[in-house]
Amino acid sequence: MACGGETTILSDLQKELPFKTDSAGRFVSDPQCVVFNCKAEMHEGRPVGKGAVKYIIRTDIMYRRKEPLFTSPADQKAFALWQTAQLLAEEGETDSAAQLFRQMTKVSPDLAYYYGM
Q1: What's the pTM?
Q2: Using CB atoms within 10 A as the burial measure, which of 11, 15, 19, 87 is most buried?
């Protein structure tokens, strides 16, 4: 019963959790399932087949950690670089974004690892 609309999560070693995939490597699940992913995770939505419907709900979940992460001045600077790079990438300024992403990985390797870079 292939009707399209799969979400393909591009490998970041799948964050050590195996996903069920088809022969082309696309995530497959029961139609009643929900897929959760962070914005930083590379993914794409496949075309929905004729006569099928795919619902997408996007939301933000706000929380505060008991033990804050990445609080050093270098981490703060790296996060600011990451945010700017994200905006540039969304605006199509990919070369400038790539430069900032590379700079961010040098400023805070730990934060870069957290974002899968």
Answers
A1: 0.51
A2: 19
